[in-house]
Amino acid sequence: MTGTDRISLALCWLFAIACVIFLMLPIVITLAASFTSSAVYTLPPPELSLRWYQSLQQRSGLWDAVKLSLNLAVVSTLLSLILGTLAAIAVTRGSFRGREAIATFTVSPLMMPGLVVGVALLQFFREIGLRDAYTSLLLGHIVITLPFVMRTLLASMAAFNFSLVDAARTLGLSYPRAILQVLVPNLAPAYLTGGLFAFLASMDNYPISIFLTDARNKTLPIKMLQYLEEQPDPSLAAMSSGLILLACVVLIIASRTVGLNRMIQG
Amino acid sequence: MIRRAERIGFLALPGLSFLAIIYALPLFMLLLKSFQIDGQFSILEYVTFFSDNYSMSVLWRTLRVAFLTTGLALLIAYPTAIIMARAKGIWLSVFLVAMVLPMSVGVIVKAFAWSILFRTRGVLNDTLMSLGLTEAPIRMLFTETALIIGAANVFLPFMVLPIYTVLRQMDSRLPEATVSLGATPVFRFMNVTLPLSLPGVVAGCAFTFSLAISMYVIPSLIVGERQQTLSMLTARSFLYLRNEALGATISSILLIIAISVVLGSSWLASRLGARQ
């Protein structure tokens, strides 16, 4: 190693450490702010207290919002996994033209402005007379979750040896059974990774949901921004800490089963 | 076998028709609507938008913030990705957790945390004052700088990870080979590492830029109503002003920008791929 090498490497390390601190900062701040005893955000907290966690019980409609968000995230992720499996098999194994374009199209909602998709869905559902808020939200959330699932499934199926499925077929399994018993277990890491990111994206979505809710069906992000406008006390930090805890649980499951490095490259 | 390979294509139908009806068709109708007034073709809404000083200033602010956010994220991400690609063991785990945990936490929590940090009587100002760097608290919340810092923070993992993935796949002996051939570090970086990592840089920049151009939660929590962006103007025209024609026009402009970023970056990526 030359001198220039050492200096530039040290500089890169400096950036990398700063980057880690920068990335963790909002999470640490939220956790610290949630345990404060004071009624405003003062950091470090003057005294540790759980009062803002207790106050969550008095927030009207919070539990309903949590239930609706979990419901939407689970159902839309499961439906996306089914639709995504079929589409990814077709793209990987099919011999028709335009497979590249289909792959790009199914992943493209990731890069489209969420708010614009929300507006478009609002007008479209109004046009076709769909008034039920839950159904509209669910359809919208499948558009959110499907690209996450497609991205990981397409990548992992490209590397999957499909002769395993053919072997299972010669042993007498029907095609659907061969997919379920051979392909899906073999690609379990991809299903878990794609599914988890899809789930978290649905839980966090605001820009699409805001156009599809009604007074009775409010998702957690919508409710949180509403609280923030009406009564911005540290109980919001307590709510956020709950979401951070959820993310930690999801990540522990993922790192134990898939491994973090595989998770981000899937 | 050939027959089955063709039949297998039908498996894509449920997913494809879903996205065609519930995603592509509504976006297409929105685009169509923005070119219509009372059922007649018209570009009047666009003319009004582009000749209005206020909407132009919002457009420029949105583009400027997205560019600066992408630039700041790239500046922090590139050295980090280089270190990450070389890291092993516990350090690699630290970096991976630092990327994946914030990605999993969600935008609302992070944007909210930044709004606490940037408060006039917030942590940042307290730190600055106790260090003696400033006498009086600086106003940070509601400024464009605060928005760019917050946005870069939220989108940073999406910039680091594609670059990291490309660098990790790069044969680590390649730079060493150039050294044994007598290349200087600068020459090696400019002619080996940088060109090979460009596909990752393009992917990261395209993704970050398209997220930054259309972000809504982050600016509404950090800068508020005073400094509108295109997304906030869209939301306002639909949810409060009930001016759907204006909303449709602005959303179409955002949509066109997003589609050009997607097409442009995939064109660039395929050209870079062809060159190697």
TrEMBL record, chain A:
Domain ABC transmembrane type-1 intervals: 66-254
SUPFAM superfamilies: MetI-like (SSF161098)
Region forming the signal peptide: none
Swiss-Prot/TrEMBL keywords: Cell inner membrane, Cell membrane, Membrane, Transmembrane, Transmembrane helix, Transport
Residue ranges of the TM segments: 12-35, 68-90, 102-125, 137-162, 183-203, 235-254
InterPro entries registered for this protein in UniProt: MetI-like, MetI-like_sf
Keyword Thylakoid among record annotations: no
Subcellular locations according to the entry: Cell inner membrane; Cell membrane
Record-given protein name: ABC transporter permease protein
Organism: Candidatus Rhodobacter oscarellae
UniProtKB/TrEMBL annotation, chain B:
Gene Ontology biological process terms, A to Z: transmembrane transport
Ranges for domain ABC transmembrane type-1: 59-263
Subcellular location: Cell membrane
Major subcellular site: membrane
Keywords of this entry: Cell membrane, Membrane, Transmembrane, Transmembrane helix, Transport
Keyword Glycosyltransferase listed: no
Protein family membership: Belongs to the binding-protein-dependent transport system permease family. CysTW subfamily.
Protein name per the record: Spermidine Putrescine ABC transporter permease component PotB
